[in-house]
Amino acid sequence: MGDTHVISKRIINFNAGPAALPLSVLQQIQAEFLNYQSTGMSVMEMSHRSVEFEEILTSAQATLRQIMAIPDTYEVLFLQGGASLQFSMVPQNIKVAGKAANLINTGIWTQKALEEIQKETSVKIIASSEDQQFLTLPKLSDIQVDPNASFAYMASNNTIFGTQFKAFPKTGLVPLVCDMSSDILSRQVDVSDFGLIFAGAQKNIGPSGLTIVIIRKDLAERCDKSLATMMQYRTHIKAKSLYNTPPSFPIYVAKLVFDWIQNQGGLSVVQENNERKGKLLYDAINNSEMFYSPIEESSRSLMNVVFRIKGNNVDLEDQFVKDAEQAGIVGIKGHRSVGGLRASIYNAQSLENVEAFIEFMQTFEKNNHIL
Ligand SMILES: *Cc1c(COP(=O)(O)O)cnc(C)c1O
Questions:
Q1: Does residue 304 line the site of ligand 1, with CB under 6 A?
Q2: Active-site residue identified among 203, 255, 277, 333
Q3: Which of the residues in the chain have pLDDT under 70?
Q4: In degrees, to the nearest 5, what angle opens at C-alpha 87 toward C-alphas 56 and 217?
Q5: Would you call 119 a catalytic residue per the annotation?
Q6: Looking at residue 296, what DSSP letter applies?
Q7: Ligand 1 near 150 CB (within 6 A)
Q8: Which of the residues 109, 255, 277, 333 is marked catalytic?
Q9: Bridge-based pairing state of the strands 163-164 and 157-158
């Protein structure tokens, strides 16, 4: 029962989230699992007030700051509640009386956010691709943020529909809030373009249970102190993400993933790898007689590659998913709300795995003529 045996049984995992993690990170967790750095215990069993854990937390924050080049005018918070809690925390903290929020509606996640933001403040939808079934993104030149808005809200990558903004709207003095759950750390972004960035960890960072919030300091001072203590960003800023017990094990894993990114040369290298993987897979789809991408070309996501079999042949798509499982490839069924097929190729997905998947697609096409 050696390690090689276990590793050879690992399959190709295209799950959208929780998603595949880098093998080297998993191996390090395994090596340190029972006895973390001679403490005689697992990180999971350790006090969050211990020196060892504080070191993990401080290092995680410092490395994230470095790889994203986060300016000192921003705080980095490690919270719980998932990206979905931010749909409420954001408006509760940064709404402004008498001003409306602006929202760019590009799919199910921004719609869910809209529902929650509306409970706290008035919202104006300033751009939407709903009338195109979210298969494209609004053009940047068509997005006009009201200069009097309290904040503007968007998602950078639409995990379910497979669209991704390649650039961000200029919002002037209006703080731009961005849900980056499914593409944070996949490319270089200029943090100073945003007032607040948040992301659930389980797509591109680590295990579920951890939510990263990067917030411009002044925005945390907007809200009234009557807001529930746990809901105020300032609480977590003041306590350095240790107001209560943080998700300590996910923070430890996230730290290892941040180190993994830094050790390969940072986000410029990660971005190149993602561009290479994405191009390979989209080229294979475009050059195929059987598969196609329903997403308008300039809006296609490099993280979640959504595709279909021509004629939207559901039976053949089901067969494709079944055959893939037989071949050791999982997670390629589209989200239940949209159907079709989806391969999530986050940072941890290797080029070799993408190549193996393309080979599988080509074999499937050869064996199942549709023309
Ligand atoms: C997965 C996802 C969410 C929801 O994340 P939870 O952590 O489950 O709340 C929100 N937004 C986007 C873009 C996502 O991909």
A1: no
A2: 203
A3: 1-3, 370-371
A4: 55
A5: no
A6: -
A7: no
A8: 109
A9: antiparallel
Q: E strands, 100-180, where?
A: 101-105, 123-128, 152-155, 157-158, 163-164, 176-179
Please give the structure tokens belonging to residue 50.
Answer: 């211990």
How high is the pLDDT of residue 8?
A: 73
pLDDT at 9 (0 to 100):
82
Helices vs strands, H then E, count in the chain: 10, 14
* 179 is an active site residue: yes
Rounded Cα gap, residues 112 and 115, in angstroms: 5
* Beta bridge partners of residue 330, listed in sequence order: 13
Decide: pTM greater than 0.85.
yes
Which residue owns the Cα nearest ligand 1 atom 8? Answer: 82
Q: What is the pLDDT of residue 371?
A: 52
Strand pairing report for 152-155 and 157-158: unpaired
* Ligand 1 center to 140 CA (angstroms): 23
Farthest-apart Cα atoms in the chain, separation? 65
Q: How many CB atoms lie within 10 A of CB 371?
A: 5
Torsion angle, CA of 306/312/313/318, rounded to 10 degrees? 30
Task: Tell whether ligand 1 has an atom less than 6 A from the beta carbon of residue 163.
Answer: no
| Interatomic CA distance for residues 87 and 185, integer angstroms | 21
Q: Is the CB of residue 180 less than 8 Å from the CB of residue 156?
A: yes
